[in-house]
Amino acid sequence: MADSTAPPTRLPLRAALPFWLSLLMIPLVFAAATLGGLWVLVPMLSTWGVFATLDAALGLDTDNLDPQTRDSALFWHRLITLIWAPLQFAMIFGLVWYIPRTDHLGPLEIYFVTIGMGVLSGTIGIVYAHELMHQRNKWERWLGDLLMAMALYGHFRSEHLLVHHRHVGTPRDPVTARYNESFWRFYPRVLKSCLVSSFRAERDMLARKGLPWWHRRNPFWRYGALQAAFVLLAFAIGGWLGVLIFVLQAASAIFQLELVNYVEHYGLTRKYLGGGKYEHVKPRHSWNASHKASNWILINLQRHSDHHYKPDRRFPLLQAHSEEDAPQLPYGYPVMTFFALFPRKWRAMMNPRVRAWRKRYYPEIEDWCDYNKARHPV
Question: In this model, does residue 346 exceed pLDDT 60?
Answer without folding.
Answer: yes
